[in-house]
Each structure stands twice: as structure tokens, then as C-alpha cells.
Specification:
The chain is α+β, with helices and mostly antiparallel strands. The protein has two helices and 14 strands. It is elongated.
Length: 200
């Protein structure tokens, strides 16, 4: 096979993939504000596939790989939205890739617009750090997403992750008041001590 044939095949493949592409998105929605260290927070898997091929309202199926830095956030659980189920009842497969923890799962029956699943995590990283929660289609070349209405219609949504900022746990108001009072008393004691030493 010569170079011209290979280039032609690549062009046809690129054209085929471009026809499958659309404005549909599968995205992770993280917390809007920084999360406190040691606190639990959620990240939502959002589907927006109003323009997916096939019938509407659509029923979306797909398989994703979530990746995260397990030294900064700890995975707790995954809850599917009402009417959504796991592919083959397999649940979440936990693994690792390139030093990051991975969560792989497939889902069926997601609405064409809205939350398909909610992840629960705990922030375990140092304060003032930002970490990412990535997401990719399980099959990066051909894709896994389909609208099952009325029959399986493939589409390639844009798949995006999110970021999470971790903040320090603030001291309670009473602790601030106590620290201020102790500081004030300590300052007075130092002044009194200097005055007493100076008068000797």
C-alpha cells in the first residue's frame, strides 16, 4: 500500500469521525467553591446530548474512565441517577494509569440532558492545592456513546473533566477570640515585665 492510499484512508476515517462529532458533551461538574481539607464533596457527571442522532427524548449509554490524584482526593462512592444503570451490572472498576487512580464504568439509560451520576470524594490534600479530576471516553478512537432510541446511534461527544481546590479548615470563631485574648494578655504581661525590670 503506497502513501497516497494510506493518506486517502486516513482522510476517509477523519471524515467519518467528523460526521459523528457534534455539540454533545459529557462533562464533570466539580464544586463551585474550594472544599475544606478532610471534608466530603461531590462531582457530577453531566450529559448534554440534545443534538445526538436518533430519537428524542434520547436514552444515552456510554463508558468513561475517570482519573484522579489519590494523594489529594479520595474516592468514596458513585451513585447513579434514577433510571440509569451500570453496563452489565459491573459497577466501578478501580485501577491506576500513569500514577493516577482510575475509575472505569459504563452506564445505560441516562437522560439526554442532566446528571447521570454523582461521585463522592474526600479532600485529603494539603490546603491551597488544586487537583484535577479527568475524564475520557473508554474507547478514545471510535467512542462508546450511543443514543439507544430507537436503535443504537453512535456519536462522539466532547468529554471534559474538572478541577478541585482544597482550602484549610478555618478556626472556629471562639478559637479566634481565645487566640486574640491570649495574645492581648501576653502583650500586657510583657509590658508589665519590662516596666518592673526598668524600675529596679
Amino acid at each position: 500500500m503506497n502513501t497516497r492510499h494510506i493518506n486517502s484512508l486516513l482522510g476517509v476515517l477523519a471524515l467519518a469521525l467528523s460526521f459523528r462529532a457534534g455539540a454533545a458533551t459529557i462533562s464533570l461538574q466539580g464544586p463551585a467553591a474550594p472544599v475544606l481539607q478532610s471534608s466530603t464533596f461531590t462531582v457530577k457527571l453531566q450529559v448534554s446530548a440534545l443534538d445526538a442522532p436518533g430519537g428524542h427524548p434520547a436514552s444515552i449509554s456510554g463508558q468513561v474512565v475517570i482519573d484522579l490524584d489519590s494523594t489529594k482526593i479520595s474516592y468514596n462512592s458513585l451513585t447513579l441517577a434514577g433510571g440509569v444503570s451500570f453496563w452489565s451490572g459491573t459497577g466501578v472498576a478501580i485501577g491506576s494509569l500513569a500514577g493516577r487512580q482510575t475509575l472505569t464504568f459504563g452506564f445505560n439509560g441516562a437522560s439526554e440532558s442532566g446528571t447521570a451520576a454523582t461521585f463522592s470524594f474526600t479532600a485529603i490534600g494539603a490546603p491551597s492545592t488544586t487537583t484535577t479530576v479527568g475524564m475520557t471516553d473508554f474507547d478514545g478512537l471510535f467512542g462508546t456513546f450511543v443514543n439507544t432510541v430507537p436503535t443504537n446511534q453512535s456519536f462522539n461527544p466532547t468529554v471534559t473533566g474538572t478541577s478541585v481546590q482544597i482550602s484549610a479548615v478555618p478556626l472556629p470563631t471562639t478559637a479566634w477570640l481565645l487566640l486574640t485574648a491570649f495574645g492581648s494578655v501576653a502583650g500586657r504581661l510583657r509590658r508589665v515585665s519590662r516596666t518592673v525590670r526598668g524600675s529596679r
